[in-house]
């Protein structure tokens, strides 16, 4: 405690002369003023030349970051819009493709039905033509058979009239004529 009291006494006595106070604290007041002026000049020079460059660089960088952020947001919005457009286009294309497939199936079914109808009509026409041909052939065969029968009957009648034949022979001749006509 004595030591502290001694120091307080020394400081109190140093206050009596301000020159002694700076000397007591180990401060050269001329050097202190020079350093204060140098500090103020340094702060002014830094404020005038260095800080504006740093602030401008930081502002430019911030502006570029802001621009990049806006561009990224715009790109993201455009990507979402493009994705929505793509999805809508794909949905539309799928619908159109399904419609095309259905139309193609319907057309194919119609074509098959038309072809079947045409084939049926053609086959019916061919059958009808064949029946007509058969009718004509049957008619022609009947006419030929009728002519042959008439010819045979004439021959048989001619033989019967000639007096060569008797009832038994007539019956045999008619039977032979009819059998010949059947062939």
Question: How would you describe this structure to a colleague?
Answer:
The protein has 183 residues and is an all-alpha fold. 93% of the residues lie in helices and 0% in strands. It has one domain (2-182). It is built from 4 helices and no strands. The radius of gyration is 68 Å and the shape is rod-shaped.
Structural class: mainly alpha
The dominant shape is rod-shaped
What fraction, in percent, of the residue positions are helical? over 70%
H-E string: HHHH
* Mean pLDDT, all residues: 84
The largest sheet is: none
Helix count, DSSP H or I runs of 4 or more residues: 4
The total domain count is 1
| End-to-end CA span | 170 Å
Strand content: under 5%
Summarize the structure.
The protein is an all-alpha fold and 183 residues long.
Quick tags:
183 residues; 0% strand; mainly alpha
Layout of secondary structure:
Elements: H1 2-15, H2 18-25, H3 29-161, H4 167-182
Helix pairs in contact: 3-4
């Amino acid at each position: 405690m004595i030591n502290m009291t001694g120091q307080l006494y020394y400081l109190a006595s140093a206050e009596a002369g301000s020159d002694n106070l700076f000397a007591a604290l180990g401060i050269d007041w001329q050097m202190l003023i020079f350093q204060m002026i140098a500090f103020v000049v340094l702060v002014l020079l830094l404020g005038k030349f260095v800080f504006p460059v740093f602030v401008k660089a930081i502002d430019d960088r911030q502006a570029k970051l802001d621009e990049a952020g806006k561009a990224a947001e715009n790109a993201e919005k455009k990507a979402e819009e493009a994705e929505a457009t793509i999805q809508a286009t794909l949905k539309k294309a799928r619908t159109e493709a399904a419609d095309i497939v259905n139309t193609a199936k319907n057309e194919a079914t119609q074509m098959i039905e038309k072809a079947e109808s045409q084939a049926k009509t053609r086959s019916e026409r061919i059958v009808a033509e064949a029946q007509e041909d058969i009718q004509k052939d049957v008619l022609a065969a009947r006419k030929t058979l009728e002519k042959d029968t008439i010819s045979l009957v004439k021959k048989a009648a001619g033989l019967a009239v000639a007096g060569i034949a008797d009832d038994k022979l007539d019956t045999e001749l008619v039977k032979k004529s009819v059998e010949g006509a059947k062939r």
